Amino acid sequence: MATKNSTIWTPANVVTCVRIALVPIWLVIAEVARIQGHLSDGSAIAWASFVLYALISLTDKLDGYLARSRGEVTDFGKFIDPIADKLSVVCAFLYLLELGLVPSWAVLLVVAREFLISGLRMIVASEGVVVAASNLGKWKTATTMVAICALLLSVTLPLGILATVVRWVGLISLAAALALTAWSGYDYFVKCWPYVVGE
Q1: Which CATH number does the domain housing residue 71 bear?
Q2: How far apart are the C-alpha atoms of 195 and 184, rounded to whole Å?
Q3: Nearest residue to 52 (alpha-carbon basis) of 102, 97, 92
Q4: How many domains does the chain have?
Q5: In sequence order, which residues have a C-beta less than 8 Å from that of residue 138 and are 6 or more positions away?
Q6: CA 89, CA 53: separation in Å to the nearest integer?
Q7: Distance between CA atoms of residues 134 and 187, nearest Å
Q8: Most CB within 10 Å of its CB: which of 16, 69, 114, 133?
Q9: Can you give the residue range of the structural domain that contains 9?
Q10: CB within 8 A of 164, min separation 6: which ones?
Q11: From start to end of the chain, where are the E strands?
Q12: Which candidate, 62, 85, 72, places its Cα nearest to that of 133?
């Protein structure tokens, strides 16, 4: 069972902070690759961009594993982990929007859902209630990361059949992620509604 920890600098929280620090570094590398025309040419900088984002995605699972396996729970961790998740996903979607790989309405759906969930969390927290993450939310996160990584890989690989197949994998994963984004947002809203109206 997780217990309160006396320090905020647990291994899980350190990993989360590193993840946040890596997001702007990734974005700079990705933008340099785009501006210099190194996308879809298999260049080192394009690969660096993809590998770094894949690493950021994997650390999302790592900090959760560390927190659970070590029984370390901090208020700082509860605060900073959702920020890291939102930052990495929204920045990636904006970059993919810039590349023309995702439509603007998809970005709006993702951002609107995050605003909705954040607002609902503040309301239920004021009531001293914690609404546990559902499996829908976990599947949404997993498919979103797969979609982003696949789409980033598709613009890293040289133009050809493999890049096209990877892009389709990314687009199909994106469709699933968006459906789960809407569904999980609705599910969370229904669970929180009694606290919103004071029932």
Answers
A1: 1.20.120.1760
A2: 18
A3: 92
A4: 1
A5: none
A6: 10
A7: 9
A8: 16
A9: 3-196
A10: 154
A11: 3-4, 72-73
A12: 85
Mean pLDDT by 10 residues, the chain (199 residues): 61 89 95 88 90 91 75 73 88 95 94 86 74 77 94 92 95 96 89 77
Spatial distance between the Cα atoms of 166 and 147, rounded to a whole number of angstroms: 10
Are 165 and 154 a contacting pair, CB within 8 Å? no
Q: Look-up: residue for tokens 């990877």?
A: 166
How do beta strands 3-4 and 72-73 pair?
A: parallel
Which amino acid type is present at position 182? A
Asked if 140 contacts 184 with a C-beta cutoff of 8 angstroms, the reply is: yes
pLDDT at 193: 83
User: Which candidate, 135, 138, 131, 127, places its Cα nearest to that of 117?
Assistant: 131
The Cα 138–Cα 52 span in angstroms is 22
44: exposed, middle or buried (Cβ count in 10 Å: 0-12, 13-18, 19+): exposed
Distance of CA 71 to the CA centre of its chain: 23
